Amino acid sequence: MRLVVFAASNSRKSINKALVQHAAERFVADVAPNTDVTVLDLNDFEMPIYSTDREQEGGIPDQAQAFYDAIGSADALLISYAEHNGSYTAAFKNIFDWSSRVSMRVFQDKPTVILSTSPGAGGGASVMKTALGAAPHFGAQVVASLSVPRFNTAFDTDAGTLVDGELIQKLGEALRALGTQMHSK
């Protein structure tokens, strides 16, 4: 089985990347030990800002096809959305916009767990709401979601793990649901 994971952020110190990597580690340790995990870094897919003019003049950039192909290689997805001004990060939105020109079903019917976190009490609630509403339209089979509020309290960055018992339990439930979906395909 192959799990593709990424934080929808281009920050090298992304708390969403820390969260999604932790979730992937928990998935392998607790749910599916033989899973091959691929961590995507949005910085590897940087492209000019999407516009129909650019697409008509130069076609779809290779990076958009590479991102789409990486998603296609997965049996399941773990995505953690960073929230910028209540929505997706510009980096993710641009990659997503270009990749949607390859196919509108960017997520290619993959079982998906959607995560988000932020330093504040909202835990990225606005971007989580947007992602949960949009992802199925773009081919994600969302099996679970989890918002982690107050990241700096809920997560031990030195150990790379959640420390809040309730959130640990909820993450475990989400990952087990993903494992069930992966095995049923």
Number of domains: 1
- Could you name the CATH class? Alpha Beta
The share of residues in helices is 40-55%
Structural class: alpha/beta
Choose one word for the global shape. Answer: globular
Can you count the beta strands?
A: 7
CATH architecture field? 3-Layer(aba) Sandwich
CATH superfamily placement: Flavodoxin domain
Low-confidence parts lasting 5 or more residues at pLDDT below 50? none
CATH topology: Rossmann fold
In what range is the share of β-strand residues? 15-25%
User: What integer is the average pLDDT?
Assistant: 97
SSE blueprint and pairings:
Blueprint: E1 2-8, H1 15-30, E2 36-40, H2 52-58, H3 62-72, E3 76-81, H4 90-102, E4 110-117, H5 125-134, E5 140-148, H6 151-154, E6 155-156, E7 161-162, H7 165-184
Parallel strand pairs: 1-2, 1-3, 3-4, 4-5
Antiparallel strand pairs: 6-7
Helix pairs in contact: 1-7, 3-4
Explain how this protein is built.
The chain has 185 residues and is an alpha/beta fold. It has a single domain (2-184), classed as 3-Layer(aba) Sandwich (Rossmann fold). The protein has 7 helices and 7 strands, in the order E-H-E-H-H-E-H-E-H-E-H-E-E-H. The protein has helices spanning 15-30, 52-58, 62-72, 90-102, 125-134, 151-154, 165-184, and strands at 2-8, 36-40, 76-81, 110-117, 140-148, 155-156, 161-162. The strands form 2 sheets. It has a 5-stranded parallel sheet, with helices on both faces. Strands 6-7 form a two-stranded antiparallel sheet. Strand 4 (110-117), helix 5 (125-134) and strand 5 form a beta-alpha-beta unit. Helix 1 packs across helix 7 (165-184) and helix 3 (62-72) crosses helix 4 (90-102). The longest helix has 20 residues, at 165-184.
